[in-house]
Amino acid sequence: MNEVFVSILKTSKAIQDFLKQFLREFSLTTTEFAVLEVLYEHGKQTVHEIAGNVYLAAGSMTYVIDKLVEKGYVMRSDCKEDRRVVHVEMAAEGQRLMNEIYPSYKKAIKVLFEEVTESEMNSTASALAKIEFKTK
């Protein structure tokens, strides 16, 4: 059991390092990329929705979104119905960047899994979901 736990930790770190290296060329952090990915795949979102999709507290998102606004990748807009709600959407420059990055990102992820069978992926996903459930 301990061997599996250590393997999960090592694999998680290796994947994070792989992603950091991939994103370094584009001057993005993994969290910034995660936000851009959510907006790229799902369109305009509230800060709360983005936070839920990238598994961060909504309060932590302010800094990340500020950085993406500074870089010209996203835009904020206030919700007309509820002033407490802020929407975030992809700016043209963010869309251009993701159009450039995303196909390479998907290819890189595919390479990581090329030696893993569909059955192994399903078993691993199922086991990890059970472990994640126990942590809550």
TrEMBL record:
Any one GO molecular-function label of the UniProt entry: DNA-binding transcription factor activity
Domain of life of the source: Bacteria
Domain HTH marR-type, chain residue ranges per copy: 1-133
Keywords, comma-separated and alphabetical: DNA-binding, Transcription, Transcription regulation
SMART domains named among the record's database cross-references: HTH_MARR
Pfam families in alphabetical order: MarR (PF01047)
Protein name from the UniProt record: MarR family transcriptional regulator
